[in-house]
Amino acid sequence: MEPVGAKIAIVGAGAVGTSIAYAALIRGVARTVALMDVNERKVAAEVLDLQHGLEYVPRATVLGSADPQVCADADVVVFTAGAKQKPGQSRLELAEATIELTRTALPPIVDAAPHARYVMVTNPVDVVTYAALRFTGLPRRQLFGSGTVLDSSRLRFLLSEHCGVAVQNVHAYIAGEHGDTEIPLWTSATIGGVPLLDWSPLPGRPALDAAARDRIRDDVVGSAYRIIEGKGATNYAIGLAAVRIVEALLDDEHRVLPVSSLIDDDAVGLSDVCLSLPTVVDAAGAGRRLPITLSDDERAGLRASAQTLARMQRRFGL
Q1: Please, which residues have CB within 8 angstroms of residue 63's CB and are 6 or more apart in sequence?
Q2: Any known ligand binding at 37?
Q3: What are the average pLDDT values for consecutive 10-residue runs of the chain, which has 318 residues?
Q4: Which of 5, 135, 145, 310 is the most core-located residue (most Cβ within 10 A)?
């Protein structure tokens, strides 16, 4: 029998792609999970390993192939294929090889699944998302990047540890580039409904002053480098973060997530770049960006982040 229900396709069977597939199966987000990778032996082995665990997850079918047609009829395509980040290497240094791969690999997938929503995860995700929009001609709502969804999760975890509260009660976003110029939006952040900038420490906990906030911001930015240095790749948290985006799409959640989408106005002082701002994600894709309150420093930081990305786009002729 043909499986009935949502289908997600994951392009790239490396550490990130397989972590997304694994998380998707455990959370039961789709009835069909398809893996595509040019390495036929690798994708076949990954599919077989996942299939052997199907007894223990919600009912699903796992497929795999090097042929883009394995993505046909997908509701969501998650693109993870790209060059692997090396220790000490910035995300933007990955751009040239990954952009060329996106240019050749993505259009046949879009031909196979023209109506899917596309979530770009490959780093540097903002520049790759901009390139993918150019190469495919898809609208900004249909194709967008995972952006700073993971970075915001890192920020919330660190704030919860510092303040001694559950991470689920911390609401704070990282915005801008998914990379070294990203900025925390302290002005709009809250902990249990209390504005973060008004937070009084719990007994025995340190103050959340400017110095502490700077340390937390640096920890968020540097965390990926530390993980890559220690084990070669970040994969578990981005797997969970990407599946959270997929759930928002498939379940039409209208969930606010800081995904990377095309800025087509002067909201941060510069147009025609992809960067992350709190955005409503629903069945149609990346929708309205929220008019979030920004301090002058935050607005300047977003502008600087956008300018960094625009320079990188020009460097690669985008």
Answers
A1: 32, 33, 34, 35, 47, 70
A2: yes
A3: 76 96 96 96 97 96 97 97 71 77 95 97 93 96 97 97 96 94 96 95 94 95 89 92 97 97 75 93 95 92 91 86
A4: 145
Burial (CB count within 10 angstroms: exposed 0-12, middle 13-18, buried 19+), residue 52:
exposed
Q: Give the residue from 88, 111, 145 where a domain finishes.
A: 145
296-315 helix and 125-136 helix, angle to the nearest 10 degrees: 60
- Quick one: 115 and 193 in the same domain? no
Q: Is residue 1 part of a domain?
A: no
Domain match, 22 and 161 both: no
162 is catalytic: no
Q: Which of 115, 162, 178, 254 is catalytic?
A: 178
Q: Are residues 171 and 297 in the same domain?
A: yes
**Domain total of the chain:** 2
Residues across the chain: 318
Domain containing 45 equals: 7-145
Annotated binding residue at 12? no
